[in-house]
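Session log. Operator J.P. requested a structure for one protein chain; no other inputs attached. Running the standard single-chain path with token output.
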Amino acid sequence: MRRSSILLLVLLPLLLLSASPTALADRGSVSLTPGVSIYEPGQKAIIAWNGKEEILILSTDVSASGSTLALEILPLPSNPKAVEKASFESFVVLQDLIWRHAPAPIYRETGAKGVEVTFHEKIGAHDITVVKASGALELTEWAEGFLRENGISQEFSLQKFEPVVEDYLTRGFRFFVLDLIEVSPHQNSVEPILYRFETSFLYYPLKISSPLSGDTTIILFLLTRDEVESALCYPFMVAFYRSPTQRVPIQLNVTKEELGSIDLRIEELLEGDAQLTVLEYEGPLNELTRDLAIEEKDATTYPEVSTVYVLLGVATGALCLLTGVMLVLLRIVVKRAKTV
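Structure written below.
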């Protein structure tokens, strides 16, 4: 097939930008839906994490000004145990769960050397290669050669991504997923891909997107054993159910059976009920200067911190009481000395 141009994007969750901005769905109409929708253009991801392993299901809506080939690179903290086909039905089930837990009424608010190939397989529209890299220059040069081997003859360079790749390597990231997909002028959802990998923290790469210009919309569905604190999710905000009188965060319990209906691999990973937290981001790509990374201790230290503050408060109160008693006794001694 003749390819007239290349759309080259280096970022995590299959983010593609067309030559002209894509209009988002109208947010002004009254609707009995939560404040997020899986059917809006943008990135969507399901992240299930049990403290040791993560399952990441990625989906996106892609379009370009003409028929082209797109390259996406996904940094991972470890070599993936599984790279498998997923189903958009998982997102549909999650959307249904959110609807069923929605308060009523609800409305939408307005508004080369050193690079080792560890995996290669074609999965539907995806041509996926996982590589292990030890240097940013080696990886970008390898990726440029990789594209030429796949029929891309135009001049291009990945040099502007070298500082970001170097940052990932410095933080211990050695594995990168390269995904080649065909895109056309007609926007369509690329079938989701599931990645399973070991990680001691809940992870979603963002910084790899920062060299790019333009805006994006990202929706994340987090499935964890414990509730995720919203303060740990920057630059994301917790999505809300919205009504004329209240805003209720979309955070709810999901049963083991419901997890199985989302994806049996997620049910097997979490081994029981889970907490669902929906996050959203709308804004510039160049402001994504840090990845989403939540460690298990971040979710469990808050009660301990609260206990420490309580103990400090008790100790402070006792000290103040003791000081008061000492002052009273001192006054009594002074008065007696004067009378003598």
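Operator note: Helices lie at 89-100, 136-149, 162-170, 256-262, 264-270, 296-339.
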